[in-house]
Amino acid sequence: MLNLGQHLLLAVVQLAGRARRKAQRRRRAQALRSGVARHNNHGIAEVHSASLSVRQAETLCKNMGKPPAPEKKPVFAVDYVAECEKSLSKRLGRGVKIVNGKRKGHFELEFYGEEDLQKLLDALMKLEK
Questions:
Q1: How far is residue 94's CA from residue 109's CA, in Å, rounded to a whole number?
Q2: Are 85 and 97 in contact (CB under 8 A)?
Q3: Which DSSP state fits 103?
Q4: Of all residues in the chain, what percent carry a pLDDT higher than 90?
Q5: Phi-psi region of 102 (alpha: psi -120 to 50; beta: other; left: phi over 0)
């Protein structure tokens, strides 16, 4: 059995809890109203369904005004010089290196002796098509 002092203490604690919950609801409503005024009801369902705190709702409202970040499309970088090296190396049957500079580049073709150089020259002449 509770005495009168305990009843009063219990009533004060209950009232304080109700007041705290009421203040939280008021802050949430204020955050929603400010978001509604600026952003035409966007995000209200999200705030309500997620049971966000006041600070989370404020952050959501603040971020609604920002445009979404543009999606970056994946860039398929093809190393054109390396592809040319592979193609030419396969066609000539020897090592080929292409050095690409700022203003100009150059080819490096492997050959082993005068006879191999003549074969390379003949192969290059056939590529003239």
A1: 7
A2: yes
A3: S
A4: 9
A5: alpha
Q: What is the pLDDT of residues 41-86, one digit of tens each?
A: 555 556 555 666 777 777 777 777 777 778 887 776 678 888 989 9
Neighbouring residues of 119: CB distance < 8 A, sequence distance ≥ 6: 111
| Identity of the amino acid at 61 | C
> Which two tokens mark 62?
């603040």
* R_g of the chain computed on alpha carbons: 38
DSSP letter, residue 99: E
Could you tell me how many residues make up the chain? 129
- Report residue 98 as tokens: 């292409």
Amino acid in position 41: N
Please, are residues 64 and 39 in contact by the beta-carbon 8 Å criterion?
Answer: yes
Model confidence, pTM: 0.38
**Residue 99 · residue 105 · CB < 8 Å:** yes
Distance, in Å, from the CA atom of 92 to the CA atom of 120, rounded to the nearest integer, reads 7
